[in-house]
Amino acid sequence: MKYNKILISGGIGAGKTTLANNLSKILKIKNYELDNLVYKRRDTHLKNSLKVRNKKLHEILKKKKWILEGFHNHPWTHKIYKKADLIIILDIKSHISKKRVLLRYLKRKLSFKENKHINKNFKIMLKLLESISKKHTKYLKEQKRIAKNFNENIIILNNNREIKRFLQILK
């Protein structure tokens, strides 16, 4: 089956952006981060107005092809679940997610690139780790529930091996 509209969901540090980038290259489809619809600047968590967020989402959803990645448990996201040809949920173990968040923080902190302000703040990184500890299982259950309510075409990937196998099938 050919997928033109893909939603990638998963917890913090699950690999959503990495998978979206890989799918984008393979399928030649532009990918978008939900966080970039919600936030003006992610490092400060300064939010866009609802009007701006909704306009950005509408512009994406009217395209013939898109890859969206992220998870926001709000009714405004339900139309994404309905329109997606495929929903991919990354159900990665919490200790792997924590390791990835820590490594991402260190890479970005040591990087001299100015375009990635995200996760360069130590306190925010600690909050992300704490959030993984407290909410990982709850969020995954919620993501699966929402996906099943709106769509039948769902794939759950649990580790890098399954992700690599999935990408190979698409090539």
List the helices and strands and how they pair.
Blueprint: E1 5-10, H1 16-27, E2 31-33, H2 34-38, E3 39-41, E4 46-47, H3 50-61, E5 66-69, H4 78-83, E6 86-90, H5 94-110, H6 122-150, E7 154-157, H7 160-170
Parallel strand pairs: 1-5, 1-6, 2-5, 6-7
Antiparallel strand pairs: 3-4
Helix pairs in contact: 5-6
| Outline | globular
Largest sheet, if any? 5 strands, parallel
- What is the rounded Rg? 16 Å
Provide the CATH architecture.
3-Layer(aba) Sandwich
> How many domain regions?
1
Poorly predicted tracts of residues = none
Report on this structure:
By secondary structure, the chain is of the alpha/beta class. It has a single domain (5-170), classed as Rossmann fold (3-Layer(aba) Sandwich). The chain is built from seven helices and seven strands, in the order βαβαββαβαβααβα. It has helices at 16-27, 34-38, 50-61, 78-83, 94-110, 122-150, 160-170, and strands spanning 5-10, 31-33, 39-41, 46-47, 66-69, 86-90, 154-157. Helix 5 (94-110) packs across helix 6. It is globular and about 40 Å long. The two termini are 12 Å apart. The mean pLDDT is 90.
Give short descriptive properties of this protein.
about 170 residues; five-stranded parallel beta sheet; two-stranded antiparallel ribbon; single chain; alpha/beta; Rossmann fold; about 15% strand
